[in-house]
Amino acid sequence: MNTLLSSSSIENTTIVNPQGESLGSIKDLMIDPQSGRVQYAVLDFGGFLGIGDKLFAVPLEAFTIDRTDERFVLDVPKDRFENAPGFPVNDWPSNPDPQFVEGVYDYYGQRETYLRTRINEPVLSN
Amino acid sequence: MNTLLSSSSIENTTIVNPQGESLGSIKDLMIDPQSGRVQYAVLDFGGFLGIGDKLFAVPLEAFTIDRTDERFVLDVPKDRFENAPGFPVNDWPSNPDPQFVEGVYDYYGQRETYLRTRINEPVLSN
Prior knowledge:
Two copies of one chain form a homodimer.
Chain A: E1 5-6, H1 7-10, E2 14-16, E3 22-32, E4 37-44, E5 54-58, E6 64-66, E7 71-73, E8 86-88, H2 98-107, H3 111-118
Parallel strand pairs in A: 2-7
Antiparallel strand pairs in A: 2-3, 3-4, 4-5, 5-8, 6-7
């Protein structure tokens, strides 16, 4: 098991690229309460790329953690975000959409993580 | 996949028993950022049982969700909390402790959930 972080401390954490340039911050975590899994982090890039009205969905497993500076590092070239999975600030997905989540993992090269962690997941009615 | 909830909306959610009596609220979620799993929810029972200085660790999978009233239901008799896993308000566990987490799942009858969801979990150094 790895060091645990509280959800409230992850919210508002700064995201930087490996060069230490700020990309934005984590706005929230979307969680499946029945399986106990974080499906994706919601990133707010602010004015970056002029896409301040869009939020991005990124797998939590795509980040590495810079514990010294208490920030997350995302090793993704800026131009990759132009077509990255996301949604408008005022139109968060209200219904679960497995294809959207799978696409999020695919986009960040985390397909194996997606498959490995879902293989034993229960799907409960509630 | 089940309906997703944001971590910020889960924080401060009211916890009731099946009779609708308030037990307290969710104070935070402890997350393993490398595996993307919620290891446990941190419950604040307030003055309930006179244990306001203790927080309780409960698996997220132990709750059912009352979507109508936007609250979580925990079907555990009150006297079960007297010896339930937790920690003092001012002394949160700082280091990951797999045995503590396993004990939390055991205490709420979620051993099978614990084993099923961990079997394919990666343990990454970071």
